[in-house]
């Protein structure tokens, strides 16, 4: 489909949503000005979509356009999805009740005629009231949530962990997205929290930028000084290759990737690009492997065979691979066992509900079965970090920015 057709269909979808919800607004509020203000907000949104579509230029950084569009959807339309879900359920119930009335006795028909309109108004008021919850949640996510850093600690047990690494700690961060940042003081707080963990090894699993390496420059001083006794390593994520911009040439695009790798080196991180390095302690070692980005929906630059070509089959291995789909599609099937894979990428879509021990849900689960936290399959573990930064929607609702601290323990 052409971009124009996609835009037209998107606009038609949003208008349909607005019109359906308006039926509830119209019944709940008799004041004509409430109705006019409702449509005024809708029209302003349509005009913003139109001007964004006409003015969008992939050759330049369009962060404000993307952020604005994502914010519009999260603030104005996510609450409406809740309203629609409730009203559709009520409409379906009303349909069943209507079918029943067709064959019911006269007194039941009279009851239905008096009962249904009152119930409809009650349901509409409930739906409008409940919609305020995600609305306020989105506002909080923009104002506070995107900097609500959490340190999540996990202890991982292995039979074949070298004894010298019993109690070894690994700090993982992912998806920094410097191109989205807008508050140096808050980011510095997050970096200080990383330093305070005093991990033995620090690993960053990709997506330093949104589109291009220059986004890093204002933040280099903030990220300098992140150090660990056994080093700092990183890999590239899908956003680090410049694939979301239009470049004058492939050479310029490739040069920008190399510039990013140099900047990461400048702040103390060694980039592993389909290669490995030994982490040594007290005469023993584990293998740290890093691959370029490999994902089902993206160009598959990662080469696990190349990255592990000189490693022993049974050595203890930790893999950095940005996209968690790599784990299911390649890692768990490889002849050389990877004990622990560290990924990011999903951000948990920056929206969801997590109550430890009770609820863990995000719409990202529809696209990524393994979207956040710890997973285990075929004797191999995967940890998916929820991300340090944010992308597109300038906030986080329920899925907070994460700093992961993993402790390796040897089973007795």
UniProtKB/TrEMBL annotation:
The keyword Ribosomal protein does not apply. InterPro entries: Calcineurin-like_PHP, Metallo-depent_PP-like, Metallophosphoesterase_sf. Residues 169-347 form the Calcineurin-like phosphoesterase domain. GO terms for biological process: lipid A biosynthetic process. Keywords: Hydrolase, Membrane, Metal-binding, Transmembrane, Transmembrane helix. One of its GO terms (cellular component) is membrane. Pfam families: Metallophos. It comes from the Bacteria. Gene3D superfamilies: 3.60.21.10. The keyword Membrane applies. SUPFAM superfamilies: Metallo-dependent phosphatases. The chain crosses the membrane at residues 33-56, 68-89. GO terms for molecular function: metal ion binding; UDP-2,3-diacylglucosamine hydrolase activity. This is Metallophosphoesterase. It comes from Phaeocystidibacter marisrubri.
């Amino acid at each position: 489909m052409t971009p124009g057709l996609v835009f037209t269909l998107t606009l038609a979808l949003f208008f349909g949503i607005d019109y359906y919800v308006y039926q509830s607004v119209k019944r709940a509020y008799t004041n004509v000005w409430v109705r006019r203000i409702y449509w005024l907000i809708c029209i302003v949104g349509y005009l913003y979509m139109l001007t964004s579509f006409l003015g969008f230029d992939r050759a330049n950084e369009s962060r404000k356009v993307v952020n604005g569009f994502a914010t519009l959807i999260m603030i104005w339309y996510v609450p409406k999805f809740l309203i629609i879900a409730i009203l559709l359920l009520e409409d379906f119930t009303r349909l069943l009740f209507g079918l029943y009335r067709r064959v019911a006795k006269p007194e039941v028909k009279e009851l239905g005629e008096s009962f249904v309109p009152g119930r409809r108004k009650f349901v509409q008021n409930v739906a409008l009231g409940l919609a305020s919850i995600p609305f306020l949640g989105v506002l909080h996510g923009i104002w506070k949530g995107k900097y609500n850093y959490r340190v999540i600690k996990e202890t991982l047990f292995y039979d074949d962990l070298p004894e010298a690494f019993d109690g070894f700690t690994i700090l993982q961060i992912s998806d920094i997205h410097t191109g989205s940042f807008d508050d140096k003081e808050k980011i510095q707080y997050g970096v200080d929290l990383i330093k305070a963990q005093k991990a033995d090894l620090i690993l960053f699993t990709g997506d330093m930028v949104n589109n291009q390496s220059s986004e890093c420059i204002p933040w280099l001083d903030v990220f300098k000084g992140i150090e660990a006794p056994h080093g700092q390593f990183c890999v590239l994520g899908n956003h680090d290759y410049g694939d979301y911009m239009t470049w004058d040439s492939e050479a310029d695009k490739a040069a920008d990737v190399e510039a990013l790798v140099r900047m990461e080196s400048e702040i103390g991180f060694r980039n592993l690009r389909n290669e490995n390095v030994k982490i040594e302690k007290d005469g023993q070692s584990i293998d740290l492997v890093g691959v370029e980005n490999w994902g089902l929906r993206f160009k598959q630059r990662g080469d696990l065979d190349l990255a592990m070509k000189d490693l022993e089959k049974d050595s203890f291995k930790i893999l950095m691979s940005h996209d968690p789909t790599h784990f299911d599609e390649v890692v768990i099937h490889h002849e050389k066992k990877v004990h622990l894979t560290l990924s990011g990428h999903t951000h948990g879509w920056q929206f969801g509900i997590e109550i430890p021990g009770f609820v863990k849900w995000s719409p990202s689960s529809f696209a990524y079965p393994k979207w956040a936290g710890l997973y285990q399959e075929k004797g191999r573990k995967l940890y998916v970090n929820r991300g340090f930064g944010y992308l597109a929607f300038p906030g986080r609702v329920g899925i907070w920015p994460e700093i992961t601290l993993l402790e390796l323990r040897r089973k007795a």
